[in-house]
Amino acid sequence: MKPKAYLNGKIVKQGAPETMTNLLVTHGKISGLGYIPDEDEAQLEQVDLKDCFLFPDVTDLTPINFGDPEKKVGQTLFEMARSGGVTRLLAFPNVGQGRLCSAEDYSAWRKVCESNSQIRLSFSAPAFQDDTLLAEIGLYAEAGCRALIAGQTISDSQGMAYLLKYSQMFDLPIFVQAMDQNLSGDGSVHEGEQSFVLGLPGIPSAAETTAIARDLALLAAYGGRLHFHQISTGEGVQQIARAKSDGLQVTCSVGLSHLFFTDQDLGEYDSEKKVIPPFRTEQDRLSLIEGLKSGVIDCVVSGHSLFSNDQKVCEFSQAVFGISTLEDFLPRVIEKLHLENGFSLAKIHAFISVNPRKILGESKSCMGLGQSPNFSVWDPAVHSVRFVVVDGK
Amino acid sequence: VKSSKDLVGLRFLSSREISDLVKETLSLKKSLAQSSKPKPSLSWRTFVTLFFEPSTRTRVSFEIAIKLMGASAVLITKESSSVQKGETLLDTVLNLQAMGVDGVIMRHPDGGSPAFIAKHLKIPVINAGDGFHEHPTQGLLDLVTMTEKLGSLKNKNVLILGDIAHSRVARSNIWALTKSGANVFVSGPLTLIPADIQKMGVTYVGDLRTIVSKLDVINVLRIQSERQQAGFFPSIREYRHFFGLTRDKLQDAKPELLILHPGPINRGIEIDSEVVDGPQTLILDQVQNGIALRMTVLKHLIEDKT
Question: How close does chain A come to B83, measured CA to CA in Å?
Answer without folding.
Answer: 33
